[in-house]
Specification:
Elements: H1 3-21, H2 26-47, H3 56-67, H4 79-108, H5 114-123, E1 129-132, H6 136-147, E2 152-156, H7 164-169, E3 173-176, H8 182-187, E4 195-198, H9 203-216, E5 222-226, H10 229-238, E6 243-246, H11 247-259, E7 280-282, E8 317-319
Parallel strand pairs: 1-2, 1-4, 2-3, 4-5, 5-6
Antiparallel strand pairs: 7-8
């Protein structure tokens, strides 16, 4: 989003927040209306002087002026009218002070109303991305999205999370709460979001959040972090989640590429050789426990069993033991 667009969004959010803050004036204003009506009735029945008009409009005008410390005409003779004329200005001071104090607290104390402010910012935003979980993976995702110029709203359950402040520093808007609460997702304006990324470290919580998002809006893209590869495949096939990622499945090819013959990435202080390398193989592979130096040279085919994933079980992966450093 351009700087002008961000400024416009901010201004719209400020207006929405100010409209919410004005809601606290409802009770003082209603009380003032009741006081003015009571004062007008007493003025009409008991308070008018012989030389003053005895109309409802004049009675309401006198009552309204009394509320703001302004007295019109002579003092009434009836005791009830006198009581109202003394009490009504005091009620006006109390009600006006209460309204101003409540409005000021709502406008100035943004920290106490942080969730309301985030809701108003989300209401003023379109085509944003919602990230659930600001952990190690979540923060990396936020950094990438912010670097691409995408508006990011985050949900984190732990207010003392180590990456919450960092996410805010780079430009993401973070709200504290449980993303499994459906009302929280609605507050973040899922209806107009570009995508939802679920990146907590709990598979069941991620699945529950994704289902809640799908109930709110069926066409929003969902990217979900899952540790169980079989569960990820089933979720993608049966629940309509566009992308479900198993982190172990993503990591396996990377490990394999790093460990293949011909890939040189020597550790500091080590000579070139096979030290420190490892290969992902099947559990019952003939390569198990063999040294990397014994594997076929670059350009040759590896024996059966050198694979990054199996059809039987995602847990049937093992690592070849690292070879000792050649000297």
């Amino acid at each position: 989003m351009s700087p002008a667009g961000r400024a416009l969004r901010r201004a719209r959010a400020e207006l929405l927040y100010f409209g919410w803050a004005l809601q606290v004036l409802a009770r003082p204003l209603l009380s003032m209306v009741v006081v003015v009506c009571i004062g007008a009735v007493v003025e009409k029945v008991y308070g008018h002087a012989p030389d003053e008009p005895n109309t409802w409009s004049y009675a309401f005008f006198v009552s309204y002026c009394l509320l703001f410390l302004e007295h019109l005409g002579t003092a009434p003779e009836h005791w009830l009218a006198q009581l109202v004329e003394y009490a009504q200005p005091l009620m006006g001071v109390i009600l006006v002070s209460e309204g101003v104090l409540r409005l000021g607290m709502n406008l100035m104390n943004r920290d106490a109303n942080a969730r309301i402010w985030v809701e108003k910012m989300a209401d003023a935003t379109r085509h944003h991305v919602i990230v659930c979980g600001v952990g190690t993976v979540g923060l990396r995702i936020v950094e990438e999205l912010v670097g691409m110029g995408v508006d990011v709203f985050c949900v984190e359950r732990d207010p003392n999370g180590p990456y919450v402040e960092r996410a805010r520093e780079i430009g993401a808007i973070v709200t504290i709460g449980d993303a499994r609460a459906e009302n929280l997702l609605r507050e973040l304006n899922v209806a107009h979001a570009r995508a939802v990324i679920v990146a907590t470290d709990d598979d069941l919580a991620n699945l529950e959040i994704a289902l809640d998002v799908r109930e709110i809006r069926r066409d929003v893209p969902i990217v979900m972090r899952l540790f169980d590869q079989r569960l990820a495949q089933k979720v993608k096939a049966s629940l309509g989640i566009e992308v479900s990622v198993s982190t172990s499945r993503l990591a396996a090819p990377l490990f394999l590429r790093r460990a293949r013959p011909g890939h040189r990435r020597d550790a500091p202080g080590r000579r070139r050789g096979d030290g420190g390398r490892a290969a992902l193989i099947r559990e019952k592979s003939s390569l198990r426990a063999r040294r990397m130096g014994d594997l076929p040279a670059q350009g040759s085919r590896w024996p059966s069993g050198a694979a990054t994933r199996t059809g039987s079980s995602p847990d049937a992966e093992a690592c070849a033991t690292p070879a000792t450093t050649s000297r």
